Amino acid sequence: MYRILISGYYGFGNTGDEAILLSILQTLKNHIRDVELVVLSAKPKETEAIYNVKSIYRFNFTNIIRQILKSDMVISGGGSLLQDITSFRTIPYYLSIIYLAKRFGKKAVLYSNGIGPVNYSFNKYLIKKVLNEVDLITLRDHASKKELENLGVTKPPIYVTADSVFALTPVLDDKRIDEILLKEGINLKKPLIGISLRRWRNDETFFKEIAGALDYIKQKYDVELIFIPMQREEDLKAGEKLQNYLNGSISVIINRYSVLEWLGIINRMKLLIGMRLHSLIFAALNKVPMIGIIYDPKVESFLNIVGQPSGGQVSNLRKDKLINLIEKALLEEEKVDNHVIVELREKALANIKYLLNIINQDKRR
Known about the structure:
The chain folds into two domains: 2-160, Rossmann fold (3-Layer(aba) Sandwich), CATH 3.40.50; 174-336, Rossmann fold (3-Layer(aba) Sandwich), CATH 3.40.50.2000. The protein contains 14 helices and 13 strands. The chain has helices spanning 15-31, 44-51, 61-70, 90-103, 121-131, 142-151, 174-183, 204-221, 232-245, 259-267, 277-285, 297-306, 319-332, 338-364, and strands spanning 2-7, 35-41, 54-57, 73-82, 107-115, 136-139, 158-160, 192-196, 224-227, 251-252, 271-274, 290-294, 310-313. A seven-stranded parallel beta sheet has the order 3-2-1-4-5-6-7, with helices on both faces. Strands 10-9-8-11-12-13 form a six-stranded parallel beta sheet, with helices on both faces. Helix 8 crosses helix 9, helix 8 packs parallel to helix 13 (319-332) and helix 10 (259-267) crosses helix 11 (277-285). It is globular, with a radius of gyration of 21 Å. The two termini are 15 Å apart.
């Protein structure tokens, strides 16, 4: 039995991070026989119920140490775990798990991570110190690799792959998605435009500009606007703020749904206007045209990979530009190239290929 402990931003109700966890669990179970998986989570009982996997509380370091001692490998799994733009404490927390793993002689792997931005000198020092001791790093984009190189991480093998979520295969249950949309009061006879926003710094002008664009599009094209809260509690606040600036109406999805249900919901959109990275990734998986709004370099990096347009930075988004992009998307329906999605899936599956090399080396000892 090979035992793996998985660390990440799980149990917080962030659909993107839950999709990362689902993809990692599925991939590990599909490729490793006799594997025991344990997940660090903010809500262990909920994580156990959803994914049928053992879970422990992410801040109980006594239990974490016990579990590391039982494990063969610790995976720091996916997403932008190593950045300090949202909190100074994020980087020390995730690196402490990796540091403990190496102190106890365990394998430690960064799996499909995004790196940065890293602003604080202390965090830069920690990243260089700790990550130069890990056994493998896979990254979801070239910008992350450049960030690590700039921080002085040079010793472990580093591979640029793709976000692990691209390893997921969307299972579309049309009947279930119809039930959800009808339950949420959405008019299925109109074209649906999905909007995924989050609150950000000094965002008053941003909300006014995007509301103006959406009012114009809704009136001209008779579409249904659907607000998609990828991190429910936080993003519903953004939905309320957007509603305050809109002259027309918008349907806000208020109930909780699984990762696969969210994939099905976004599949129904004619267009997705997204600020959250994984709303855009979900759109790409469904080949739904998208317009990204950049609050973090990871969003711009992804848009470049899939060849989809940006509405601009949160700080400089303007109504007229967004209207032009929306009209072009509605009229031309330029979907994500299927070849790009196939390539991203192959790269996402490369994460497990590199991981298996480490595991097989470990087992031969």
